[in-house]
Specification:
Blueprint lengths: L10 E3 L4 E3 L7 E7 L2 E6 L5 E7 L4 E2 L1 H6 L6 E4 L3 E7 H9 L3 H19 L1 H4 L8 H11 L2 H16 L3 E10 L5 E12 L3 E3 L1 H11 L1 H24 L6 E5 L2 H5 L3 H12 L6 E6 H6 L1 H13 L3 E7 L6 H4 L6 E4 L1 H5 L5 H16 L3 E4 L5 H9 L4 E2 L10 H16 L1
Bound molecules: ligand C2E and calcium ion (2 copies).
Length: 409
Amino acid sequence: MLPDVLLKKPRTYNEGEYIIRQGDSGDTAYILEKGQVEILIKKEDGKTKSIGTRGPGSIIGEMAIIDNEPRTASIRAMENCNVLEISRQDFHRRLDNADPILQTIMQVILTRYRDTLARIDEISDKKGFPSPEEVEREFALEQDAVESLKIANEFKEALDHGELALFYQPIIDMKSNDITGFEALMRWNHPERGFIPPDVFIPIAEETGLIVKASLWALNEACKGLKRIEHKTGWKDCLTMSVNFSSTDFATEDFVENVYNTLSKTDVAANQLILEITERILMQQPETARETLEMCQKAGMHIAIDDFGTGYSSLSYLHSFPIDILKIDRSFVVDMFKNEKNIELIRSIIGLGKNLKMNIVAEGVENKEEVDTLKFLGCDRAQGYYFAKPMAEDEVIKLLKSWDNLKTA
Ligand code: C2E
Ligand code: CA
Ligand code: CA
């Protein structure tokens, strides 16, 4: 089942309008993107007291979505305001993923804060603390909360409106110099901001659960792309397609079913698909990962460990998972000649990986010296700018059509 994605679109409130009313039950918190608001508390004697203002970057209305109590204050727009909404469900899904100690401490702090608010008159004149407004604004800005929420909202739209595309980077066999396949890499062409790199949007998509929908889209698109490429170039049934998956994908119940369905719908053979996952998935969810990977491998798919060497797993640990391919992280290749240790690391990853009958792919290969050394060390395949950058489908088709000539040139 896909996780509930309940991020909402930005909203506007006009000057004087109430964003939150005291006593209401609340299912939304807000990040103030633009404008000033005033916080008002109605006291037992019926009088209303203003207890402060908030500006861009502040989070408001968060208490009621944490503990389900009625709103303790009203919040009114002092000028035209833009807010980003965080729904109770979205917040709780994030909270459920947090450390239990964090969850408990948050509840305790909230209870104490409510108690403090109830005694607002006694404490409102105490000096010596920075104003809550200052603290919140700095925190929100430092944490890039506004930016990440905006990107999350926009990424959801992008998924629904076809702003995502796949680029493909060739993977080369070091002995034969042939292209063995491609890795599918996501690209987001934002209508106003232009190209946004995956390093920015993938972590946000992972945090919000949107990655599940995005990965399924990528898998489907990559399979369809592979079929079109085969059809237009004549490279039939011999190319692999590597698709990246995150730990959130693996945690969904119907992951395997979705992958099977996509393969059969697009008529791609299971042994042409490589699932790229990181060591983190194996460490975080060893049992689920083992079961899922075994099913995929039995069906004929290949499993690659991405960014190998950057996690904490040992090769002996990896041995207990059905893994076919290790991708040596780019960071080892980049500094190969500057840092002796990296060559040694590459040598031992290749040696041990081979003992475990795994295929070794080096990532981020940028020059001939690296190619020669990796070949010498026994690396099977390579991927990197030296061979080709990730490219659009029509360029892949051109490349494959001319590849045999290039190879012998
Ligand atoms: P990754 O899976 O390790 O992908 C390889 C990245 O290295 C790609 O960056 C590729 O463009 C870059 N690269 C390849 N060769 C070279 C080289 O020789 N030099 C340098 N400097 N870079 C090279 P990209 O496309 O920006 O993707 C970044 C990361 O975003 C990926 O790292 C992957 O973790 C994530 N990503 C991209 N597409 C997807 C996707 O569809 N799903 C998921 N879950 N993650 C994705
Ligand atoms: Ca990858
Ligand atoms: Ca990688």
